[in-house]
Amino acid sequence: MKKTISLLLFVAIGTGFLSSCSDYLESDQYFKDRMNIEKAFSSKQYSEEWLAHTFSDLENECADVASKGYTPHCFADDMYYGDRDGDYDTKDIASLSYNEFHTGLYSENDKQDTWTQCYRGIRNATTFIQNIDINKEMTAEEIADYKAQARFVRAYYYWLLLRKYGPIPLLPEDGIDYTESYDDVATPRSSYEECADYIASELVLAAKDLAQGRDRLSIARPTRGAALATRAKVLLYAASPLANGNTDSYAMELVDDEGRQLLSTNYDEEKWAKAAAAAKDVMELGVYELYTASFRATGNSSYPATIVPPYYADFSENNWPEGWKDIDPFESYRSVFNGTVGADNPELIFTRGNNGGEKGQAMVAHQLPRVANGWNTHGITQKQCDAYYMNDGTDCPGKDKEIGRGDGSDRLSGYVTQEDLDAGMYKPLATGVSLQYADREPRFYASVAYNGSVWHLENEPDSWNKEKQVFYYRGDGNGYTNTMFWLRTGIGVMKFVHPRDTYRDGAIGLIVPKLEPAIRYAEVLLIYAEALNELTGTYNIPAWDGSATYAISRDVTEMKKGIRPIRIRSGVPDYTADVYADQDLFRTKLKRERQIELMGEGHRYYDLRRWKDAPVEESLPIYGCNILMTSEQKDLFHTPVAEFSLQSTFSRKMWFWPIKHSELKRNKRLTQNPGWTYND
């Protein structure tokens, strides 16, 4: 009989602790380790520690939202980071600059902890799944829940790998046969479709035994909704143009070791229906809703009175969820991210909780201005700034003019005066702010640190510094300098910043902790709308548990369930009937809605790739304010220019991340992504 060992003990991929065949043929050591495993899983305490350890690899490079030292993928054509510049050849791998990242000047060895962490997590989760049933100190219900948690996190690790590297090897469920030769146990890449189907099926199995909710102390533990929402994400990507009906030269070259194509060249519309049904599964749980803050008639500087959106009879006269009469759209959006709501957030589906440690706080430290001792280096591009709507749902004047798009209109001139403020105009702008930033939608003010924005720094020790208007003109302290501490576009990031946040004296503890929004309900709604829009027929798709069958089609009423709540919560009117009727126009609007709603949450980089929009969008010049201008040259400052310090391009090798050379050597059946080397 063949002998097998746990995946904890051996796998030829992603470990780095095996160097020769003799290393893994010494079976005595494995039997000893196997006895330790059996002993560990006989104990409830050790089993719980094992499960907790299985989740530990979700941090660092495996985080969805964190500072760029771990996840530069949070930055694309929407956001950038200005520090970590310098000579690429003289700094360590962790210091990948934005230009190197955004132009493909990284190597096969950069940012590769994802591979190691994910496969390590997969091994640990598999060992847990295979052995937890021997535990006699736990109830059957506890074992089922714990096993489902391990199954979820194993699927999530696979998802992170698939999203970053494309098709990856799926490891055997029952371990590796150590009596075979090294080459015989090498594992080829599965196709994208096979990976997605496997992950989706595993998430269904996990969902069956996962709890519907968790208490505050278990906020980072997965729920049924987390499994089903992750499944919807996976199926959406599998339905998207990069992996569904891709016939370009890149898809032809992405093959396994036997020449089998790994991206589907045959378009299958039903994949969109499956993604829509998966999103509907989450919606039908009845557990999640968009967070809303109540309307405030009065307020203070940090929490101002509600700025009422322009009048629309359909929305201004109706309470949430049919309108915004009783909610504050600005605070509703801002509070989701800045630590105000925390574990009580009804739209938070999956989060690592505090597993990310100080990484979320470090991200905010890089957004804060110098007056708060922040790094002042994370910023927004002009393209992202223009993406936000006016408060009446129209485009801002001059939108995308510099990149040859838009309606040909000019950007607004002029600045807010004291007389304007006395008349109650242009809230929440302060004096001296360009009218280009006036009358924007609430998400703009919750997300964008425009020139002249007011930072509410309640934790600052000096009263004069608690409400600080910050300008990014050259010579004004937060503008262009000969250091790294300046915004390359003159436009910063306000999202994730709490009014109490400050980095005074480098104290990370003065930044309010934030729960990472890995998956939230707004994303599920957007998945539903996007997938429905791509359909031309009707598909009968069973619910995840077989309790119902959905008739999935491009139904405008259903599409509105995905878009309308997000628009209303944001204080902007729903799309017109003409938009819903036009598949191409709705697709364009949907992409923009994701760009706005999910900004800074790690989606844009991957969205541009799955839509196959990256070659155009990531090759456009990056525009921003003319940061070399002083306050005496403010008109020139607010005339967008191509930023000399920010580069952009897209080459075909950038569709997926390269696989590390050492992994290719360990696994002889593993193939490299097109455009990258083997180092043979």
Automatic annotation (TrEMBL):
GO cellular component terms?
cell outer membrane
Which InterPro entries does the annotation name? SusD-like_N, SusD_RagB_dom, TPR-like_helical_dom_sf
Pfam families in alphabetical order? SusD-like_3, SusD_RagB
Record-linked PROSITE patterns:
PROKAR_LIPOPROTEIN (PS51257)
Arranged from A to Z, the UniProt key words for this protein are:
Cell outer membrane, Membrane, Signal
- Where would you say this protein principally sits, based on its record? membrane
Q: Which residues form the RagB/SusD domain?
A: 347-676
Location within or outside the cell: Cell outer membrane
Tell me where in this chain the SusD-like N-terminal domain is found.
107-236
Question: Per the similarity annotation, which family is this?
Answer: Belongs to the SusD family.
Q: Under which name does UniProt file this protein?
A: Putative outer membrane starch-binding protein
